[in-house]
Amino acid sequence: MTALVTGATGFIGSAVARKLLARGEAVRVLARKGGDRRNLAELDVEIVEGDLRDEAARRAACAGISSLYHVAADYRLWVPDPAAMYATNVDATTDLLRRAADAGADRIVYTSSVATLGIPADGTPATEDTPVLLTDMIGPYKRSKYLAEEAVRGLAREESLPVVIVNPTAPVGPRDVKPTPTGRTVIEAAAGRMPAFVDTGLNLVHVDDCAEGHLLAHDKGAVGERYILGGENLTLQQILTRIAVLTGGKAPTIKLPHGAILPLAYVVEFAAKLLRTGEPFMTVDGIKLAKKRMFFTHAKATRDLGYAARPVDDALHDAIAWFRLHGSLPRL
């Protein structure tokens, strides 16, 4: 009995792999040649080398598996070529899930995102059923994940694939090697380099709780259903203040209007594309997304799966400690 985990070199995927190993399961991972494998260090996993968009790699990875946790995705908020993102997040995902089912996987957990969910206009936390349309999706990442989730639900409905969908919020904690956009915020705030903030909000969840939610979805989730895996809803100012308390730093007091930042984001993106410097530190889509508070409730996962999340201060503490240990922040 082998569980295949895609994205296991990344943040959530590595946490899922560790949880599976801890309960005695054999784990296979798909990892790109030459990719960063620090999150696989000292893990007793079988590695299939290849890219998610490579058909041969998908076929080899799925051979003989009993379950699939498809966590991998291209989650950049800025890409010079959106077609590559759609190829990974939509096309490769659909084929991988079909191959897993054909190989005998009796349960598939697909990691979507709360980016695919609607946001209530009145500011209340969103649920799995908050209405949303493709036209509400800002940027290629959100659109690709929306289309991917629609395709996955279609596979469950029309082809009887045994797939359960999970929608993580913003994970925080150890082993954020890239780091994620939320992890970059934690680093900058802990280093005292964020004296100002915009009026936005996030739902933060400890990455290990999110990973546990994946296993609960496998064990108890209903086929074709989706479950938000979240923690606490906090404004950006509250997040930065909590980080300041944990680090002994100074909480920011300067509030910046979105309208003043958006033009700068266009300039930064243009410069990144012109100079080919990679993903810019500020993106147009990121600023547009920040106009909405991304607040969610995980009540359904708690009720149906037995899911629980620890206090967000624990997640922030663990993230800061890991970033200090691995050189992203000065050691105390």
Describe what you observe in this structure.
The model has no long low-confidence stretch (mean pLDDT 91). The chain contains 11 helices and 12 strands. The protein is α/β, with parallel strands linked by helices. The protein has a domain at 2-171 and 206-231 and 295-311: Rossmann fold (3-Layer(aba) Sandwich), CATH 3.40.50.
Derived from helix and strand composition plus strand pairing, the structural class reads alpha/beta
Low-confidence stretches: none
- Output the CATH topology of the domain at 2-171 and 206-231 and 295-311: Rossmann fold
One letter per element, helices H and strands E, the order comes to EHEEHEHEHEEHEEHEEHEHHHH
Q: How helix-rich are the residues, as a percent range?
A: 40-55%
Beta-sheet strand percentage?
Answer: 15-25%
Q: Terminal Cα separation, in Å? A: 44 Å
CATH superfamily of the domain at 2-171 and 206-231 and 295-311: NAD(P)-binding Rossmann-like Domain
